[in-house]
Specification:
single chain, mainly beta, 6-stranded mixed sheet, 6-stranded antiparallel sheet, 14 strands, about 55% strand, globular
């Protein structure tokens, strides 16, 4: 299971773009929940959740997803990506996650953060504080991202 939830506590509406990357091998993936195109300011909440329903006890993983958010004026741009490597009969590497950072109005992805279990604060986001908090298990990862105005 790959699940990312975004909570917008800022005073800015945000807009999304997301993608699922299935591989040819492995089981069947399904999108349990997808984010709306817009996440409202002051309490909006959106989730991208991908899971496997068919033969998950036998083979799991081998998929990835990503979601990025931006403000209408493009002053805020950030994203999250996840990947679940192939697991056969519960054997294989655990899922991992990374971030997309705004570097000169271009989203630059770090596909795997060095510390997968610690919260991550997005650096150098003028006017905003963005923190991602992961919860990881052997075959799943859940990350909750909170977006707030900087005080």
């Amino acid at each position: 299971m790959l699940k990312m939830t975004f909570v917008n506590l800022s005073d800015t509406d945000l807009y999304s773009c997301w993608d699922i990357v299935p591989k040819k091998d492995g089981g069947l993936k399904s999108v349990k929940q997808s984010p709306a195109k817009m996440m409202q300011a002051n309490g909006g909440k959106e989730t991208l959740w991908v899971d496997q329903e068919f033969l998950s006890w036998y083979v799991d993983g081998n998929c990835g997803d990503s979601c990025f958010w931006y403000s209408k004026d493009w002053k805020l741009l950030f994203g999250l990506c996840m990947h679940a490597p192939l697991q056969f009969l519960g054997i294989g590497p655990r899922p991992y996650w990374g971030v997309g950072l705004n570097e000169n109005d271009t989203l630059t992805w770090t596909n795997k953060l060095s510390n997968q279990s610690s919260p991550y604060t997005f650096p150098d986001v003028p006017g905003y504080k963005i923190v991602a908090r992961p919860t990881s298990a052997h075959s799943s990862i859940v990350v909750t991202v909170t977006i707030e105005n900087k005080v």
